Amino acid sequence: MDFLSKGSAPFSEELGAKIDAAVVETAKRALIGRRFLGLYGPLGSGALSVPVDDLNARGYEDDGAMVRTAGRAVKEIPLLYQDFSLSWRDLEYTEKNDLPVDLTAAMAAAAAAARNEDRLIFFGSEALGFSGLFGAKDAVHMKRGDWSKDENPFSDVAKAVETLIGKGFWGRMALVVSPDLYTQMERIQAGTGRMELERVNSLLNCNVLRAQVLGSNKAILVASEPVNMDLAVGVDLSVSYLELKDLNHSLRIVETVLPRIKRGDAIVVFD
After folding, report:
1. CA Rg value for the chain
2. Measured over all CA atoms, what is the biggest interatomic distance in the chain, rounded to whole angstroms?
3. How many domains does the chain have?
């Protein structure tokens, strides 16, 4: 089934491929969550739900006649979308004059789609009943010092890393911070000749990320191995043709994704 309506688009397959490429390439550069979360999928357009196991409660319940998996929930995979339009005059002009097509609108929509996905990963959706990393059950909350002073960023992150290791977590860890906290770490630490950011990066194999969707004064450390969390993907970022409206081409970027948090205690939220 051509659910993306590619066949109904009144322009060439070559142009359609250029639009797809512009969207995917822009989204890849803008997405933050996928830089530390492993992907589960793509599961396909027919995937409506996915199991999410709470490994801290995993087991089996047996009443003597029936057995079921404890600590497992089956959750719907939400659809995220972002619309944009391309001017028919612009497309006609570039085609008639053999010029490169301007896909700024598609790239801007791709960046917005990336923010939508990151927002779901970090904050979830209360209206849809999804929890993000910041609202995860069993997450560790740790008081954050003033990261504009002294060795507070390094000390706080080192303590958080030690906490996760003490709980038995291993492998890849990532620190994601709001832009203001990232800037506060870009200062030379007295007596070391190194930026505080470098020292924090040394704890995490250079896995410190800046995310605009966090707003301000937010930081989170995750033990991001797939055994602890991942991102379930039904349909990955794709472009659908909607209609010709007011002589302009209306298109939609769609994806179906859901962050699966299997161990909430693999997360440290800095308050």
Report:
1. 22
2. 76
3. 2
